[in-house]
Amino acid sequence: MPDMEYLKRATEINPEVIANRRYLHQHPELAFDLDNTVRFVKEKLTEMGYAPADCGDHGVVALAGGRKPGKCILIRADMDALPMKEESGLEFSSLTDSAAHTCGHDTHTAMLLGAAKLLKEMEDEIPGTVKLMFQPAEEMGTGAENMLKAGVLENPHVDASFGIHIFAAVPAGVLVYANGPMLSSCDVFEITVKGKGGHGSMPNDTVDPIMVGAHILTALESINSREIAPDSFGVLTVGCFQSGSKFNIIPDTAFMTGTIRTFDSEVREFMKKRLTELAEGTARAYRAEATVSFPTQICAVITDKDVARIVGESVAAAVGAPRVIGNFKPIAGSEDFGYITSEVPSTFFGLGGCPTDYPAYPQHSPNIRFNEDAFPVGVAAYVSGAIGWLQSQAKEA
Ligand SMILES: [Zn+2]
Ligand SMILES: [Zn+2]
User: Fold this and answer.
1) How confident is the model at residue 313 (pLDDT cuts 50, 70, 90)?
2) pLDDT by residue (tens digit) across 142-189?
3) Which partner from 24, 93, 281, 332 sits 20 to 30 angstroms from 234, CA to CA?
4) C-alpha–C-alpha distance, residues 99 and 94, integer Å
């Protein structure tokens, strides 16, 4: 297909992409509990002539091409929603109050289904294989890892990959990507301080975990201000500090949870190590005990400079160079696609989805809306990026 044909064809099928997106939007599901979503995706893929396969817990994989020899590139969409009530006022709003697609993963799934349709139409021409990855539980930070463990990168072996995320704050149809770090790692930490409860009037008989927790909180602030080099990036936020129930009771325990975000694996390991030492050591100094755990650990999304350049140039040729911005400044948000980028040379796009007649709400806002006119750019990016990279490898071979 000539370069500009991708966008033309993606625009022609946009009514179908929109219909699929609106169905998914009305029927959001959470985490790994994606029975209906997976049924829908597999049904659509089967109708197109694919043989979709389960991968891990509610993940789906389908293959396009493979008729001509060549390498394999993986393109990915996530499928899960968030546990919240939608307030967008859209006519196709979520039919439940307990889940909503406020991160736009419904649009990713619909765009990847659109890409699947285009790839099927040109299947004989694909110089290698395109692996379509429909992923669960991105918002938990565990879905990509689950599919990784289930072998998503094998049979056939994946040589490169990329994903797309829509952003309501970026102008519609603009694509951004980075060379190197794009999105930060995210390590969720939990600190439990065990003291000794008692009466508020006799603190000398107790070990007050609230006081100890407050000292830990203050100590953690010194990691960023005193221990990380000024040109290194690291964010440490305590987002929750809970303890106690009544004015005259000193409780037994205090609990804190938060996140550490970085772009560099050395800084990441250093911050986790120092957080643990400061929490445990401070607690000990005050006769309490702190236990630290990291229940969720998401790698940074780091793009490979060659894959980013080749895929970026192919996409720019297909959707028009002015709308593709290649020197995107890394941001401190996280995406569990980082698990894939840490295993395979990869790239990642942010797709602008800002509405024209409605305010741009931040991701996860109950009011958020995405601009459906951006979808053809996303579909064309998936297809042209995958084909362009496969062609570049065929030339090299
Ligand atoms: Zn999200
Ligand atoms: Zn998301």
Assistant:
1) very high
2) 999 999 999 999 999 999 999 999 999 999 999 999 999 999 999 999
3) 281
4) 7
- CATH fit for domain 186-298, picks 3.10.180.10, 3.30.70.360, 3.20.20.450, 3.10.50.40: 3.30.70.360
> Which one-letter amino acid corresponds to residue 310?
I
Ligand 2 centre and the CA of 105: distance in Å?
Answer: 6
Token pair recorded at residue 75: 């393109």
Distance 220 CA to ligand 2 centre (A): 28
| Among candidate residues 382, 393, 7, 390, the one with its CA nearest the CA of residue 163 | 382
Q: Pick the closest to residue 274 from 232, 305, 304 (CA basis).
A: 232
Which CATH topology does 3-181+299-396 take?
Aminopeptidase (3.40.630)
Q: At residue 300, does pLDDT exceed 80?
A: yes
Q: For the chain, how big is the Rg over CA atoms in Å?
A: 23
Q: How far is the CA of 16 from the centre of ligand 1 (A)?
A: 24
Beta strands in the chain (DSSP E): 53-54, 60-65, 71-78, 128-135, 160-167, 175-176, 181-183, 186-194, 198-199, 234-243, 249-250, 253-262, 289-298, 301-302, 324-325, 346-352
Question: What is the predicted pLDDT for the residue at 395?
Answer: 81
- 103 CA to centre of ligand 1 in angstroms: 4
CA of 207 to the centre of ligand 1 (A): 39
Instruction: Say which amino acid occupies 214.
Output: A
